[in-house]
Amino acid sequence: MRHTPRPVASRLSAGAALAVVTAGLTTGLTVGLTVGSAYGAETAEREDTRAGRLEVYPTNVVPGAEVTVGTVACGADGTAEGDASSVGAEAFALAPGTPPGNTTGRFRVPPSAQPGTYEIVARCSRDGAEVAGDVVVRLTGAGEPTHPRGSVKTGVGGALGPDPVKTAAGVAALAVAAAGGTWLLHRRVRGEAI
Q1: N or C end: fewer C-beta atoms under 10 angstroms in the chain?
Q2: The pTM is what?
Q3: How far is CA 20 from CA 34, 82, 177, 190, in A?
């Protein structure tokens, strides 16, 4: 049996391929760890931001609407005292809610509330930490059509004013004039003397 030596090029290419695969795995691991660390830091930063805020839903309301608020700042079984006096509502309680770790509560915007942006505050019972969020009061809900109120200012019919007696008298005068004009036209067409 004869032994044929392998070409050197194939041994080199196998070694080069192994080096490329190793380098690729190392680079992929490094990129994966870097991306994973960045994602973890971003998630932690988002949680820190949420912890420092009072989430308000819905953000845009009309007078008389009910608003739900929540925060993760008070801990898993935390409670808090809410203050919505800026919009004219009474104090309200926040209790452990859903999802776990969230403290939630509700208040009603008074029907007399004026349009504007109001700060709602909650103070955690455990450590006194304070968080705030905004609610925007509008006369109409987002996306709802606005209906006009009052009369349309066209410049026509303003001589009589809004008094119903004067308006009725004006309509009666116009009806008498129209009837008289029709009677005169009828006589003229028939050739009768006026």
Answers
A1: N
A2: 0.48
A3: 21, 61, 104, 113
